[in-house]
Specification:
Strand order of the largest sheet: 3-6-2-1-9-11-12-10
Mean pLDDT: 92
Shape: globular
Number of helices: 13
Structural class: alpha/beta
Length: 408
């Protein structure tokens, strides 16, 4: 008897009819004798609707109250799915994150899971009951409702799979797997049969919306077998696994891009020990994540310090940086919200030279200027003007022949 965790995203449960379709899929698996835990998101569009209402009440909503509001979307879905299963004669029970209990820290709107109690779930499974859990949410030590950030239901599913020692975790979504890039940008994008945890982690961190980055971290850390599948079409999807020899021939596995970037520069900073901390310390204290960083030293013993943040954090980061600018007696602060990050990812980079030169030559041929560069063992990221994003993705996809199997 196997134990599976199924996760269904917002589009998969976007209407009563689709919830009934999910119930039928779950019942089929349950009828085979398997233990099934289902994690669901809010119905598509519901979280956005709740956020909009919150902002009508308070332009910058209180984090605790916002989480209490946003968590209701998943509570609707778990109840409806459990009802649909009962109507099919399939025993089921719904749980909120707090009822499980999924314990998190108290970082509202982007909490991290600390522990999961699995006693009640295992008791239900052993009794032959399908367990339906609200994704995206948990509670802190004071029983305040918390949420895990956008895409957090993926993290809930993988964390549950780890806690329950599930055989597999299936992420059902509106796409039938992980593609070499977004097919809406490049129609020639190809579905990958498998991708390594390391590559998927990079893809998720660089803007790929298929999986939330923390869900991939969990899967890799606890060796959870993870598969991305379509809710609407049959297929084997994409298996996310550890690196195998069969993927070594693939130079580049995919191209990720992120439209949510903004760039900030503080110019004329005195080039002294500790200056980087003085710049980024207040940014970190404001719970703002910094992505790419570049520092340029000038001949007059000053430095220009440039970094990128999420666009949602741009205004707060700029305000913090302007205060730091005055404290350091620097020249000025400038910013740019009209940028994107485009990245190539592949474990094959470790053993092949010339990847960077091919990327830079391709972009130069298209007349695309590179503003920032960041590299790791298996990825190269560049920041370019937003208007060139789709052109850059398509050109790189062609240059690395990603529309072909075993691209080289």
């Amino acid at each position: 008897m196997a134990l599976y965790v199924y996760k269904f995203g917002g589009t998969s449960v976007g209407s009563v009819e689709r919830i009934k379709m999910v119930a039928e899929k779950v019942k089929k698996a349950h009828d085979l004798g398997d233990h099934i835990v289902v994690v669901v998101s809010a119905m598509s569009g519901e979280t956005n609707r709740l956020v909009a209402m919150a902002k009508e009440m308070q332009p910058q909503p209180n984090g605790r109250e916002l989480d209490a509001l946003l968590s209701t979307g998943e509570q609707v879905t778990v109840a409806l799915l459990s009802m649909a299963l009962a109507e099919l004669g399939c025993p089921s029970r719904s749980y909120t994150g707090g009822q499980v209990k999924i314990l998190t820290d108290n970082a509202y709107t982007k909490a991290r899971i600390l522990n999961i109690e699995n006693h009640n779930i295992m008791a239900d499974l052993n009794a032959g009951t399908v367990v339906v859990v609200a994704g995206f949410q948990g509670v802190d030590e004071d029983n305040n409702i918390t949420t895990l950030g956008r895409g957090g239901s993926d993290t809930t599913a993988v964390a549950l799979a780890a806690a329950l020692k599930a055989d597999e975790c299936h992420i059902y979504t509106d796409v039938d797997g992980v593609y070499t890039t977004d097919p809406r940008v490049e129609p020639k994008a190809r579905r990958l049969d498998r991708i390594t945890f390391e590559e998927m982690l990079e893809m998720a961190s660089l803007g790929s919306k298929v999986l939330q980055i923390r869900s991939v971290e969990f899967a890799g850390k606890y060796n959870v077998a993870l598969r991305v599948l379509s809710s609407f079409t049959e297929g084997c999807g994409t298996l996310i696994t550890y690196e195998e020899s069969s993927v070594e021939s693939a130079l580049i596995s995919g191209i990720a891009f992120n439209r949510d970037e903004a760039k900030l520069t503080i110019s004329g900073v005195p080039d002294l020990p500790g200056v980087a901390y003085k710049i980024l310390g207040p940014i970190a204290d404001a719970n703002i994540e910094v992505d790419m960083i570049i520092q340029n030293i000038a001949d007059d013993d000053t430095t220009d310090f440039t970094f990128t943040v999420h666009r949602n954090d741009y205004a707060r980061a700029k305000a913090s940086l302007e205060k730091t600018c005055a404290e350091l007696n620097a020249k000025k602060v400038t910013g740019d919200e009209g940028i994107v990050k485009v990245s190539i990812v592949g474990v094959g980079m470790r053993s092949h030279a010339g990847i960077a030169s091919t990327m830079f030559k391709t972009l130069a041929t298209e007349g695309i200027n590179i503003k920032m560069i960041s590299t790791s063992e298996i990825k190269i990221s560049v920041v370019v003007e937003e208007k060139y994003m789709e052109l850059a993705v398509r050109a790189l996809h062609a240059a690395f022949k990603l529309d072909q199997d075993n691209a080289a």
